[in-house]
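Narrative of accomplishments. A recurring question from our advisory board has been how the design workflow behaves on a single, concrete structure rather than in aggregate. To address it, we present the structure tokens for one chain from the evaluation set, followed by the sequence designed for it. No filtering or post-editing was applied between the two.
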């Protein structure tokens, strides 16, 4: 197996494996606001998140930036909580469209934090040259991310249909806001639990 393929596999497993719950929950929080028809908006959010974590990943692996492991491990689930709360506030205020417009900027900022988490994992492995491992690892993460997002999209669409079937004709509530708030509350609960477990003090 080539060096690129080795680190590609490591990156892919790092985002889809059982230890990636915090990253997967963050992707759920990012995706919860969207419908299946919002492909273009999702693309920009994922691209922004990719840019954010790629920048920090490169800087940290090249040792241009040093970040405390305990702080990063705490901040990652904190971003989950914040993203979930943002979803809920946007729905309660009826400002979901506004939230979608600035979501790429939020994703990029939070991507900086997640990139540091990826970097700590990669930097723990000895490599003589970082160029190929860094590229392979980053591509593996992105492919894994797309796979996770595809699964999330299927799950959210199925939930929308289930809620639509359960909704009575005379009901005034709408499926999408209910789904966004329900999913976001679950994400916030899990994220808060992980955050409290990782308090750095």
């Amino acid at each position: 197996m080539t060096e690129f393929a080795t680190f590609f596999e490591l990156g892919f497993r790092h985002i889809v494996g059982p230890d990636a719950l915090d990253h997967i929950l963050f992707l759920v929080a990012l995706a919860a606001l969207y419908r299946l028809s919002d492909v273009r908006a999702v693309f920009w959010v994922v691209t922004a998140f990719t840019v954010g974590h790629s920048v920090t990943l490169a800087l940290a692996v090249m040792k241009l930036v040093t970040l405390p492991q305990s702080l990063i491990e705490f901040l990652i689930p904190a971003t989950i909580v914040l993203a979930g709360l943002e979803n809920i506030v946007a729905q309660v205020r009826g400002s979901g469209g506004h939230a979608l417009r600035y979501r790429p900027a939020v994703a990029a900022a939070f991507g900086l934090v997640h990139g540091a988490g990826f970097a700590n994992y990669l930097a723990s492995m000895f490599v003589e040259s970082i160029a190929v491992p860094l590229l392979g690892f980053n591509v593996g993460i992105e492919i894994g991310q797309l796979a996770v997002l595809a699964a999330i999209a299927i799950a959210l669409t199925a939930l929308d249909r289930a809620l639509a079937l359960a909704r009575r004709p005379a009901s005034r509530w709408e499926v999408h806001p209910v789904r966004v708030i329900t999913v976001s509350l679950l994400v916030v609960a899990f994220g808060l639990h992980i955050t409290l477990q990782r308090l750095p003090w």
